[in-house]
């Protein structure tokens, strides 16, 4: 059986750090990306393949049904494959106020954010399971944040999606437990990624996070990668349905 990691949002930030950590553990990488240049993807692919694993990167919208079907079909062509890790690390949503005279969230903004950052976790999990790509010992990991229960300026739609993906994570963990498949959400601390820099007032968020954190620094993508590396060796589904904080203690002191 050949273990693969399927990572949505694998080209930068936490997704890329997870890909590197798993490649070092001998797990093959299938990564989806959307906005990176081919030069950037080639550089990342070269690094990953240097660890002796197979690497496939696909430019695709993770929420597009046709793209999802094509990727599942491509995965099925790999003999004796198990998706050891399915990581949902997509950060793309509308950052607008709910109330105001103009520039407020509309139906399209809300539905797009919910679809990209929450709902498509369900559809991917369904198809991976139905096609027997998720097997005993597989792990599904979603990415949440303190924003699942906290709100900042213009963060309403994303907060809605984060709380939603936590609910989806819990539900999937119940339904997949009998098959030995674990489902958990990772709650990273404030991490300086391209996604964070799009949030209005992110500099204040960073400074407050450093002030709150007992380690007196921000979380890094590599902090998440270090945990993923440990989880890669975990074959049990007994740890499931959790929101796992990887934040150096930031959340409990903030």
What does this structure look like?
42% of the residues lie in helices and 17% in strands. The chain has helices at residues 13-24, 38-49, 65-76, 107-130, 156-176, 202-212, 221-231, 250-253; strands at 2-8, 28-33, 55-59, 81-88, 139-144, 182-188, 243-246. The longest helix is centred in the middle third of the chain and has 24 residues, at 107-130. A seven-stranded parallel β-sheet has the order 3-2-1-4-5-6-7, with helices on both faces. Helix 1 runs parallel beside helix 2, helix 1 runs parallel beside helix 7 and helix 4 (107-130) runs parallel beside helix 5 (156-176). The radius of gyration is 18 Å and the shape is globular. Helix 4 links the parallel strand 4 (81-88) and strand 5.
